[in-house]
Amino acid sequence: MSLTAPSRSRAWWIRAAAIALLIGCFAHDARAIVFYEDEFGESSAELALVLRTFAFLFAGKMVDEPRNPGGSTPAGQSVFDLRAGLRARTPRFSFELTNQFSAHYAAGIGLAGALNVGQGVAPPRWLPLRAALTRDGLRLVSNVDRLFVKGQFGKVTLSLGRQPVSFGRGQFWRPLDLVSTFSLTEVDSEFKPGSDAARLDWQLAERGALTIVAAVGELVADHDAAVALNGSAFLARYVQSYSRGEFGLLAGYIRGDAVLAADGALDVKVADLYAELSVTILTDDSLTPNRAAICPTISCLRTGLRRARVRSVVGGRYKPTSKITLSAEVYYNGFGSAGNADYLAIAQSERFGIGEITSLAPLYLGFSATWKVHPLVDLFGTTLLSAFDPSSLFYLGISYNVAQNVQLVAGGYFPVGQLPDPSALTVKDEFGLYPYFAFAELKLAL
User: Fold this and answer.
1) Which site among 61, 123, 131, 292 is 20 to 30 Å from 208 CA-CA?
2) What angle do CA 270, 276, 277 make, to 5 degrees?
3) What local confidence, expressed as pLDDT, does residue 107 receive?
C-alpha cells in the first residue's frame, strides 16, 4: 500500500473529519461504564475505554535517499489506538485487564527507526499475548497490555501478572527505570507497557517501604512462553521518607548484570531537587553494547573498574510563578562513547534495542519549560544537548483540553547536528540521526 500525493491529502481530510465527529459525539464528562458498585465504594466492576489517534510526520534529509532507501518523502505514520480496560475490586483484591487494539500505517524512516522515534518498545515479556497482521505498510495489532491481580494483606501488597513497573525520578533520563523505560521522544507517557512480573510492596514502618520485583521474559518474542535470564530482572528497593524528601536504595540482577543504585529527592522550598545513581557491574553474560565498542577486547571487561558502568542524573524543578514550571537535568551515561565512531555499534546493540539505554554519548544537559497560558491550554518546550558532539534536540508542543474527557496534543522535534554518512556507515552527531518529527494526538476517555 502506498499513498500518492492526492491520496495522502484525502487521508488527512478524512482524519480531520473523523476527529471533528469524535469530539462532537464523545465530549462529555469522563466516566467509565460501571457494571457494579456497592454503597460504600469498596467493591466495583467497570469498563474503561480510551481512544487515541496519532499522526506522525517525518521530514528532512534523514528520510531522503540514500539514508532512507525505498522510503517516501515525507515519511510518516498514522496510528489508531483503542484501549479497553476491565477493572474489578473488592476490599482486599483487585483485578485489571486491558487490551490494546491498534492499526498502524507507516512509511519507513531509515536509520532513525532504531531510535524508537515517538514511541518506545515493549519490555522483554514471557506471555505471548500479542497478535499482529502486517501487509504493505499496514499493521493491525491486538496486545494485552495489562493482566494482573493485586491483593492487600495488612501491610503487604502482592501483585502478579502483566503490570507497569516504574522507578526513577528523572524527567528525561531515568537510570533506575531498569525493568522497562520510555523512548527519549515518547509522545504519550501516560500508558507504560506492562511487564510480566510478580511484585511485593511491604510497608515496614510509617515512612519506610520495601519493594521486591521479579520480571521475567526473553529478549526475542518467539511466542513460545519461554523465559531467559538475559530477558529477566530481579530487584529489591527500599525507600525511606523524611519530612522534606526521601532516599532510596536498590540492588538487583538485571538481564545478566549485577546492579546497585541509589536515589533521592529533596524539597528546598524554592525548588524540588532529585538525583539517581546506578552502577551496572558487567559479567560474561551481559548484553551488548557493544563490548568491542566500549572496550578493545572482551578480556578487558575482567579487569578492575572496566566491569562497572555508572549512570547518573541530577536535576531539579522550579516554579517562578503558579503558571510556569522550569526543569533542568544533567545526565552521565557510562554506556556512552566519547568518540562518535562507536555510535552506530551502540545504537545497534541489545541494550539500545530493548530501550534499556536511550543515548549514545557520555554527557547530556536537558532543559524544559511549561507555561499554563489558560486553564485548558499548556505550552511546553524542551532542549536536549549532547556535550560531546555537540548536537541538540529541541521540542515544542501544545496541549488543549477540549473537554473533560477529550485532549488534543500537538508538537514537533527539531534536531541540530551533522547528518550520518550512509556510504561510510558512520554517525557524526547523535541528534543528527533524528529526522524532523511532528505529531498530533487526540485522546478520548469514554
Assistant:
1) 123
2) 145
3) 56
Set of cell numbers at residue 2? 502506498
Does residue 100 contact residue 143 with C-beta atoms inside 8 Å? yes
Q: Which fold has domain 5-445?
A: Porin (2.40.160)
Burial 37-70 (b: 16+ CB within 10 A, else e): eeeeeebbbbebebbbbbbbbbbbebbbeebbee
Q: How many CB atoms lie under 10 A from the CB of residue 269?
A: 6
CA distances from 3 to 37, 248, 337, 412 (A): 49, 52, 40, 23
Average pLDDT over residues 7-12: 43
- Asked if 213 and 199 touch (Cβ cutoff 8 Å), the reply is yes
**Angle (nearest 5°) at CA 117 between 353 and 109:** 95
Cβ distance 324 to 373 under 8 Å? Answer: no
Q: Residue 108: which H helix or E strand, with range?
A: none
- For residue 193, give the 3-state DSSP assignment: coil
In this structure, what DSSP letter does residue 27 have? -
Q: Quote the pLDDT of residue 134.
A: 83
pLDDT tens per residue, range 83-110 = 899 999 999 999 999 999 988 776 554 4
All cell numbers assigned to 302? 575482567
Give the global pTM: 0.84
- Give tens-digit pLDDT for 417-444: 888 776 656 778 888 888 888 888 888 8
Mean pLDDT of 285-311: 57
Whose CA is closest to 45, among 53, 55, 33?
Answer: 33
* Maximum Cα interatomic distance, the chain, rounded to a whole number of Å: 69
Domain boundary assignment for the chain: 5-445
User: What letter represents residue 290's amino acid?
Assistant: N
126 Cα distance to chain centroid:
19
Cα of first residue to Cα of last residue in the chain, in angstroms, is: 32
**More confident of the two residues 76 and 231:** 231
Spatial distance between the Cα atoms of 118 and 115, rounded to a whole number of angstroms: 9
CA distances from 221 to 124, 174, 233, 290 (A): 8, 25, 16, 22
**Among candidates 183, 170, 249, which has minimal Cα distance to 211?**
249
